[in-house]
Design brief:
heterodimer, A: about 90 residues, alpha+beta, Translation Initiation Factor IF3, four-stranded mixed beta sheet, B: alpha+beta, Alpha-Beta Plaits, four-stranded antiparallel beta sheet
Chain lengths: ~90, ~280
């Protein structure tokens, strides 16, 4: 069990903007960005409202990562905080 | 030889435009064939057909250009290789299914297992007209449940446990029905708006949302000459035995009330949907 991260205070280790791509590249870009992080580090992803906010968190969960928080940026985009999981869990 | 075209058709031999040529329909359940079966089909198409197969709109396989004189030989060759012939005419047809929960991340139910059970119970049963079953694993509805005489669609009956919730906000966006809202303290769920799609359960990072798999059953769909969407006449069923009882009831109603050559939809429109609803209520 990795230690709990409080999403209110969690500082991201990297930022990623996937507002310029659509499915499936949204997930691919997030996956590649997570590959560059160490286990337990946090990625902040900026993504469009709609299909990306519906599906990207779920796809990351299915890969075993821990989604911490989805926040409305109130400009048609959202900010998703995700903590990198080990390859095998 | 005097050909019994009706018997040939029952056995899946579809008469072609070309005299004494048949397109041979094979039995496939849920679109799955083993590599061994594919090899058998490949050899049969090479030996007895024109070296190709046709994939039908309902996950079936047909081998065109089978000669009348070869009918028995090709049936034996297929049977020896683990492939059965399909059916046509007024009876229960191929049961279709998506890959379901075993393969697909979106799946809520074991579609292939259910399709196999339905096929085992009903495939080829003689009825007033054709009758189609289709099983789809979730509300993405890849297998188009509502275009079947009886369609079965997977879903979840969902619930939320506050102790496990991190208030991340993912479920609020995952829900397409607006059934979930949240503030800084709590998640609010309106079951009236819930469509049982289960997207909240699939998306929830902490498993605060959980779901009991269920079956949404629709009746009277048809997508040929007449296009009509199957109707859901019961609440979502979480007991698989009840799904089979609902299928039994639909077939009994159809066998009893439909005229020869009348589809389930038209029989229900003529006889009345209330009678079907009452029958379902009494059986479930």
């Amino acid at each position: 069990m990795t230690k709990k991260t409080d999403p209110r205070t969690a500082e991201p280790d990297a930022e990623l903007d996937i507002c310029d791509v659509v499915c499936p590249m949204t997930f691919v870009k997030a996956k590649v960005a997570l590959d560059d992080l160490e286990v337990g580090q946090i990625l902040a992803i900026r993504l469009n409202d709609g299909e990306p906010t519906e599906n990207v968190p779920r796809s990351l969960k299915e890969d075993g990562h821990r989604v911490l928080k989805l926040t409305d940026n109130r400009d048609g985009t959202y900010r998703l905080l995700v903590k990198k999981a080990p390859d095998y869990f | 030889m005097a050909a019994d075209y009706k018997a040939l058709k029952n056995g899946g031999f579809m008469r072609q435009r070309q005299k004494d040529n048949f397109s041979l329909r094979l039995k496939v359940i849920g679109g799955n064939l083993t590599s061994g079966q594919l090899n058998t089909i490949s050899r049969a198409a090479e030996t007895y057909g024109h070296g190709y197969v046709h994939l039908t709109s309902r996950q079936g396989v047909e081998i065109p250009f089978i000669q009348l004189k070869d009918v028995e030989d090709v049936k034996k060759a297929l049977s020896d290789g683990g492939v059965e012939t399909g059916v046509c005419g007024p009876r229960v047809r191929t049961v279709t299914a998506c890959q379901g929960i075993d393969i697909c991340p979106s799946g809520c139910i074991d579609t292939l297992d259910l399709a196999n059970e339905i096929s085992g119970r009903y495939f080829g049963r003689n009825l007033p007209h054709k009758f189609k079953f289709g099983v789809t694993g979730c509300q993405n509805n890849c297998l188009k449940a509502e275009e079947n005489d009886v369609g079965i669609k997977g879903g979840y009956v969902v619930s939320w446990q506050s102790a496990d919730c991190s208030l991340c906000g993912v479920c609020v966006k995952a829900c397409r029905q607006g059934a979930i809202t949240a503030d800084e303290e709590k998640v609010y769920f309106d079951p009236e708006k819930c469509s049982n799609c289960g997207r909240c359960v699939k998306a929830c990072p902490t498993d605060a949302w959980s779901g009991i798999p269920g079956y949404i059953v629709s009746f009277g769909g048809t997508f040929g000459n007449l296009i009509a969407q199957g109707l859901q006449l019961t609440p979502i069923l979480t007991d698989r035995e009840k799904v089979l009882k609902a299928c039994d009831a639909a077939l009994d109603y159809f066998a009893e009330h439909a005229r020869a050559g009348e589809r389930f939809r038209l029989a229900a429109d003529r006889v009345g949907w209330e009678a079907l609803k009452s029958l379902l209520e009494s059986r479930l």
